Amino acid sequence: MKLKILTLFPEIIQGFFQSSIMAKAVERGIIDYQVINFREYAADKHRTADSYPYGGGAGMVLKCEPIAAALDAISSSDQSAARRIVYPSPSGTQFTQAKALELSQMDELVFICGRYEGLDQRIIEEYVDDEISVGDYVLSSGEIGSLVIIDAVYRLLDGVINSESLLEESHEDGVLEYPHYTRPEEFRGRTVPPVLLSGHHEKIRKWRRKQGLKKTLRNRPDLLENRKLSKEDEKLLSEIEQEDDHGSD
Q1: Range 168-248: architecture per CATH
Q2: Order of strands, edge to edge, in the sheet holding 2-7?
């Protein structure tokens, strides 16, 4: 997959691609990336990338010309390639695991990192395919929002992470992931649940599923609303509710 990131602050982006799992994905050729400082495409002698908003108001707005020139310069010559231009924005649609999976099917993703009050609307209308919000809050850095999306997407590509690990993660089937434990068996009076030490794979599987459902019910009950549950999940949820009722007596 090709990743191209348009930013005023390349140094924020570079470290991410040079570290940990991403660095290995780049080394293996799974990821090819390019960081573009769109200030370099500004035509005036001061390399101006922002200006005051029409109609007044606080803050500055990123200008059309530098971003448009940068996007035109990196446009793909391969018209058959699946390509999307992404603008992370608090005004966008909610980012989900399903959206990450959709974007992971692309050959190329281009990210526009906003700053200040954001982009001139005409850039969004002319170029942007996906305006995406990573949460109901506001960031000062479009770079951070872009990296959130990139991190969720690239790890889904073949060869980046063990496929078995991906299947058991939170949000893959609408249920949050179960809790994990490792050595030592006892830490500050807290012990590893005995079932995980039993070696009984089926009991471990059911325990993990039940714990995932319990966490989802506690932290994200909305994920279970209007969701068709398996008979096993229905039974496990019934057990959880009975345990909660018993605990409240």
Answers
A1: Orthogonal Bundle (1.10)
A2: 32-37, 2-7, 108-112, 83-94, 130-133
How far apart, in whole angstroms, are the C-alpha atoms of residue 33 and residue 26? Answer: 8
Taking all residues of the chain, what is their mean pLDDT, rounded to a whole number?
93
Is 153 annotated in a binding site? The answer is no
Is 103 assigned to a binding site? no
pLDDT digits (tens, 9 = 90+) for 219-249: 999 999 988 899 999 999 999 999 988 775 4
245 is in an annotated binding site: no
212 is in an annotated binding site: no
Q: Rounded to an integer, what distance in angstroms lies between the CA atom of residue 96 and that of residue 130? A: 13
If one counts every other C-beta atom within 10 angstroms of the C-beta of residue 134, the result is 19
- Say if residue 136 carries a ligand binding annotation: yes
169 band by pLDDT with thresholds 50, 70 and 90: low
User: Above 80 in pLDDT, residue 58?
Assistant: yes
Do the beta carbons of residue 88 and residue 134 sit within 8 Å? Answer: yes
pTM here? 0.88
- Alpha-carbon gap, residue 40 to 147, rounded angstroms: 22
120 annotated binding-site participant: no
Domain 2-162 belongs to what topology? Alpha/beta knot (3.40.1280)
175 annotated ligand binder: no
Provide φ and ψ at 89, rounded to 5°: -155, 140
Q: Where exactly does CATH 1.10.1270.20 map onto the chain? A: 168-248
Residue listed under structure tokens 């039974």? 235
- pLDDT given at position 117: 92
